[in-house]
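In response to reviewer comment 3 from the previous cycle, which asked for concrete evidence that the modeling workflow produces usable outputs, we include below a single protein chain processed end to end. The sequence was submitted unchanged, and the resulting structure tokens are shown without manual editing.
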Amino acid sequence: MTRRWGFISDHRADFGVQRICRVLEVSRSGFYRWLAGAKAR
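The workflow returned the following structure tokens.
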């Protein structure tokens, strides 16, 4: 799952988080939760 979040993070400026999450069939809330925890990692 981490690779998906990294992909979304890398490409969100080009395609938007909502569109990428829909295509990958993952939740936006999951992505933002992962993003919020990035500083703790």
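The mean pLDDT is 93. We consider this sufficient to address the reviewer's concern, and the full set will be provided in the supplementary archive.
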